[in-house]
Specification:
The protein is 38% helix and 24% strand. The protein folds into two domains: 140 residues, Rossmann fold (3-Layer(aba) Sandwich), CATH 3.40.50.620; 121 residues, HUPs (Rossmann fold, 3-Layer(aba) Sandwich). By secondary structure, it is an alpha/beta fold. Helix 3 runs parallel beside helix 4. The chain has a ten-stranded mixed beta sheet, sandwiched between helices.
């Protein structure tokens, strides 16, 4: 069951699509929702050689406090207008430490909800998504920055390749699949499999035992990137939610996003639940 949600509140901007989506998800799942805002410490580039004036540091600190307070107020007001009771937390943090802190906090929730990094955003937004995905041990639901609607479950698209990550994501998404009107299991191949084989049939049988009837769809990628195949099919079928494994490989103590995951994060047009 998904009964305890965490959403990272975006700072600045007229709207927070992830926060609004989280309020809708909490209503759909009848779940508790916590909004987390970071108040970042004053930061100045390391190449600054002259001492930073104390009043300048204080001014930036106050501006950062105002941003996080405004994000919390906006979240509370949206939740109030939609009849939801929510909880908020505000944490003072160094921007470099925020991703790891968010990942650790996410471990105590059923699902973390974050916004897709904007193309013009700093790298810290992408780092927060990666930290939550690879460091929380929990599923992460990423909301496109162009998202207009709340959580809809008319059509859910499950990306299946038989991998550990895909299995984890499918299992984590079961409460959502149980509420979906239509669930489609999609496999992407290069066309070289046995024509008598039906990709995803074993998963379909497994989900049927959970009372979830699925449609099976095999997509041949050709020369197209897998992420583009998935996104194109999601657009063609008006998928409300994509479920897929979050892929990456370890480099020293960090994780580097795999190509498909990176492609989805860059160009996603539908909310996407990922697990690693």
């Amino acid at each position: 069951m998904i009964k305890d949600l965490l959403v990272n509140l975006s700072l600045g901007g007229p709207r927070d699509q992830a926060a609004e989506f989280a309020v809708s998800a909490a209503a759909t799942l009848d779940a508790h929702l916590t909004g987390l805002a970071f108040t970042y410490e004053a930061f100045f580039p390391a190449f600054e050689l002259a001492p930073i004036p104390a009043d300048l540091i204080e001014m930036q600190r106050q501006e950062n406090e105002q941003l996080s307070a405004a994000a919390i107020d906006r979240f509370n007001e949206f939740a109030r207008r939609n009849g939801r009771s929510v909880e908020t937390r505000n944490i003072d943090v160094n921007s470099a430490a925020a991703p790891d802190i968010f990942a650790r906090i996410s471990r105590r929730f059923d699902l973390a909800i974050v916004s897709q990094p904007r193309p013009d955003s700093s790298g810290s937004d992408a780092m927060l998504v990666e930290a939550a995905l690879f460091g929380s041990g929990r599923p992460v639901l990423i909301v496109p920055y162009i998202q207009e609607n709340g959580l809809r479950l008319e059509r859910v698209m499950v990306c299946w390749d038989g991998s550990r990550a895909a299995a984890r994501a499918t299992a984590d998404a079961l409460p959502l699949l149980a509420k979906a009107r239509t669930t489609e299991v999609v496999t992407v191949t290069d066309g070289s499999i046995d024509q008598d084989e039906i990709p995803g049939i074993d998963l379909a049988k497994h989900l049927a035992r959970h009372g979830i009837e699925v449609e099976l769809k095999r997509l041949v990628r050709g020369d197209i990137e897998i992420a583009d195949v998935i996104l194109s099919h999601a657009a063609d079928t008006s998928a409300d939610l994509i479920v897929m494994g979050g892929y990456g490989h370890s480099r020293l103590r960090e994780f580097v996003l795999g190509g498909v995951t990176r492609g989805l994060l860059k160009s996603m047009t539908a909310p996407t639940l990922m697990s690693h």
